[in-house]
Amino acid sequence: MTSGEKIKKILSVAKEEKRSYVLEHEVKEMLKEYNLDVTKEKVCKNVEEALGAAKTVGYPLVLKVVSPDVVHKSDSGGVKVGIKDDDALKEAFAEMLTAYNSQFPPESLKGISVQEMVQGEEVIIGAVNDPQFGQMLMVGMGGVFVEIFKDVAYRLAPIDKREAEEMLKELKGYKLLTGYRGKAPVNIEALCQALVDVSRALSELPEIKEMDLNPILVSDKRAVVADGRIFI
Ligand code: ADP
Ligand code: MG
User: Fold this and answer.
1) Does pTM top 0.90 for this prediction?
2) Three-point CA angle 158, 163, 164, nearest 5°
3) 51-92, pLDDT tens digit by residue?
4) Whose CA is nearest to atom 19 of ligand 1?
């Protein structure tokens, strides 16, 4: 399948299932086609499969529910980070299933994602498709910076590398990226490239109504998409 066909397929599956949004693992599949760095992961149906996936993904890892019924996964016990070995995986897997089945129809669960755990500063990339202006790209520092300080920058997509850098420099939290209190600076270049690549995806995919990549984890090496939602 070509890149365009893969993306069409993901979007058409969402439409067939009458979903207005694309699930996290599908968002990552789409973004991979635009060269974004995403977590290594596998959606697993049972614990045996999860133990197998852990061999490829490596410990420590993250477990997440994959379901059209769950948009905000951590609100319903659907995210467990820092799972350190096979025993912890078995326990967390069982707990997650129990929590899911007590809140949602069991048959709606698509699986549990066994996901690479990554480190870094939390950054958010978002977008809204404005009927008047088109795809508006947003970037902000994660956590309290976005929630309390509304520390974000906007540009119309697509943008180039220089514009991506300008966006980041507008953020009050930019200092968190350039190294502070003995912390190593993050790979700003990789983050700028991620912004450029997301902006290209946005301008080529008008079906995207809203995008929320939260978080992107940026270290001195990589800028990795760890979670994502797209509304179509
Ligand atoms: P939600 O649907 O609740 O937004 P997320 O997938 O964003 O769920 O996970 C919740 C939090 O867990 C994230 O904000 C991040 O702090 C942490 N997290 C999620 N995935 C990873 C990962 N692959 N590596 C490290 N931390 C992660
Ligand atoms: Mg999230």
Assistant:
1) yes
2) 85
3) 999 999 999 999 999 999 999 999 999 999 999 999 999 999
4) 226
d(C-alpha 51, C-alpha 47), whole Å: 6
Q: What's the rounded Cα separation, in Å, for the pair 2 and 46?
A: 31
- Residues 194-226 have pLDDT tens digits of 999 999 999 999 999 999 999 999 999 999 999
Q: Report the Cα 29 to chain-centroid distance in Å.
A: 10
User: Separation of 63 CA from ligand 1 center, angstroms?
Assistant: 10
CB 101 within 8 A of CB 196: no
Q: Sign (positive/negative) of CA torsion 137, 140, 142, 144?
A: negative
3-class DSSP state for residue 101?
A: helix
| CB-CB contact of 113 with 59 (8 Å) | no
Residue reference for tokens 């379901």 = 67
Please name the amino acid found at residue 7.
I
Q: Which two tokens stand for residue 103?
A: 């809140």
Q: 214 C-alpha to center of ligand 2: Å?
A: 4
| Residue 181 Ramachandran class (φ > 0 left, ψ -120 to 50 alpha, else beta) | left
